Amino acid sequence: MLEGCKSAKERWGGVSELIDNWLNERQELLVLYCSLSGVDQLRVDERPFFEKMRHLCQMLVDYVSAGHFEIYEQLQQEAVEFDDNVALNSATALFDAIQKTTEFCLDFNDGIDKFSDIQSLQVALSKLGECLEERFALEDQLIEVLHNSHGEAVTQ
């Protein structure tokens, strides 16, 4: 009963903070990715490089997981609560496209130990960068469709 008495701001204002924290994680992931891309002088088995790659993979899996198991659910629930069927229908295609990038990210993580030379790793990192660029654009659209469109109602 108390749940029904909460204002939209009380109920959904925390989603903005959750999204902000997640976008900060995105930025940290991107900074680490950029520090690794373009590497050409190192060997794959050099310890500092290997540790950075492991850290990148961990951040990548954490970021992808947070999206699927925290952020997207909250965004979808918000649209349901606001009875925004148009947004929910639009989000379905976005979720499908994001899922494809998730699979690529998880495959990258699972296959990181298979790279024996820096050239093959460079190619994989480049493809990961393209995947992340696509994913971030899709996620931004998802936030716009499922959250920002309710911004006015949330602040009341």
Strand content range: under 5%
Order of helices and strands: HHHHHH
Residue runs with pLDDT of under 50 for 5 or more positions? 1-12
* DSSP helix fraction: over 70%
Give the biggest sheet: none
Mean pLDDT: 83
What would you call the shape? elongated
Q: What is the rounded Rg?
A: 18 Å
The termini sit apart by 20 Å
Distinct helical segment count: 6
Number of strands: 0
What class, by secondary structure content? mainly alpha
Question: Care to describe what's here?
Answer:
The structure is a single chain. This protein has 156 residues and is mainly alpha-helical. It contains six helices and no strands. Helix 2 packs antiparallel against helix 3 (47-81). Mean pLDDT is 83; it is low at 1-12.
Features:
156 residues, mainly alpha, elongated, disordered N terminus
Gist?
By secondary structure, the protein is mainly α. The chain has helices at residues 2-5, 8-36, 47-81, 85-111, 118-146, 151-155.
Topology:
Elements: H1 2-5, H2 8-36, H3 47-81, H4 85-111, H5 118-146, H6 151-155
Helix pairs in contact: 2-3, 2-5, 3-4, 4-5
